[in-house]
Amino acid sequence: MPVSRITESVLNDVRKPLLTVAEACEILHIHQNTLRRWNDQGLVKSIRLGPRGDRRFRQEDIVAMMVEQSH
What we know:
alpha+beta, 4 helices
């Protein structure tokens, strides 16, 4: 797909920051193993990067979990 055809919403998604496991856990006030377990159980979605499969989380997904935890 030519660059000129990429929609603004796709560009916005690319620009949004991804959080490491440690950063996401700091926001949620949980242990890193808890977040990894939730990810393995499908409770929160992650993006896997690199040959090691490092997890990254979208900031808006983590904020949504934080709001859900507060209820």
